[in-house]
């Protein structure tokens, strides 16, 4: 049995080296699956790295979770799936916290959670509750597809530096920080008061169902206080853009990939039926196309027509050979006569 401390250190290093490539995710996932006897410790490593890493690393780990649970399900190791279902609120709170520092990761959270729900790893009720809490933190759906981005409150109309169409990798950089208590105007103060009232009402709600329990856990983590989001340096911005480009390229490759069986069935459906223009004079010759198609999926009349054409062609070839043989015999007789005369 391997040393638990060494296993934790190696797995932690692999999590820190995660990138947009599939290879890095597969390597870390396979390592965790090999050491399934330390599943609880390795799961805690994932949570620790989510809470300690920077913005880009949180996104990489979030994508890794989807890949990891998929491999664990195929390998029959349901313990990792159950632990992730248990701590999914903590994961979301770490990747997209309430202080606005994870605004660029909100779209990542939504995409991964929807993928986990499509694979039956998450319940639809939990997914709805998480999205509702994210909207309460300031994110809103701005398109028909429901993409989540950082959006200013309706009362904070003075925040004019925000662009709703901004890419997710640049939202946390260009979005202006929320006004503080010393600089806020009357309208901002009213918005903060309304936010505090809403948070107070949420905290006073009785937790009688699983939905209210999820709300309570998420709200306690953030505390309902929005602080200025930290700015990313140029290197982190370039790294995030490059990783997003790599993921989008791989997504396009997956979209164009078609299984061979489906491609064959589509070709059969799109191919037109055999017409008169497809039947040519030389079809059905010896070793020709007609001989190959005779055993295909054709009707009796079509097969009979191709057989008739083949027989006719064979007769023509036989007659041509007989004429050539007669001509050769005649030429030979003429030569014999000439030699006799000489």
UniProtKB/TrEMBL annotation:
Family matches, as InterPro entries: CID_dom, Ctk3, Ctk3_C, Ctk3_N, ENTH_VHS
Coiled coil: none
Compositionally biased spans, kind Low complexity: 181-220
GO BP terms: positive regulation of DNA-templated transcription, elongation; positive regulation of transcription by RNA polymerase I
Entries under PROSITE patterns matching the protein: CID (PS51391)
Region (Disordered) location: 159-247, 275-297, 309-342
Name used for this protein in its record: WGS project CABT00000000 data, contig 2.68
Organism of derivation: Sordaria macrospora (strain ATCC MYA-333 / DSM 997 / K(L3346) / K-hell)
Bias kind Basic and acidic residues: ranges: 231-246, 321-333
A Gene Ontology cellular-component term: CTDK-1 complex
Signal peptide location: none
Domain CID intervals: 3-138
Taxonomy, superkingdom: Eukaryota
